């Protein structure tokens, strides 16, 4: 049984883009949470 690497060629860029977007969203959300906590303490 051969593995069809065309599936990987299609899904890999989508997975990379999704993980990059998720990373950026997480980073922005974390920054907002830290900003909120800093304003609350002040």
From TrEMBL:
The chain crosses the membrane at residues 6-30. Keywords: Membrane, Photosynthesis, Photosystem II, Thylakoid, Transmembrane, Transmembrane helix. GO terms for biological process: photosynthesis. HAMAP family: PSII_PsbY (MF_00717). NCBIfam families: PRK13240.1. Belongs to the PsbY family. This is Photosystem II reaction center protein Y. It comes from Vasconcelosia minhoensis LEGE 07310.
């Amino acid at each position: 049984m051969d593995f069809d690497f065309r599936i990987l060629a299609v899904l890999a860029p989508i997975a990379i883009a999704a993980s990059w977007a998720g990373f950026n969203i997480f980073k922005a959300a974390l920054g907002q949470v830290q900003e909120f906590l800093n304003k609350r303490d002040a």
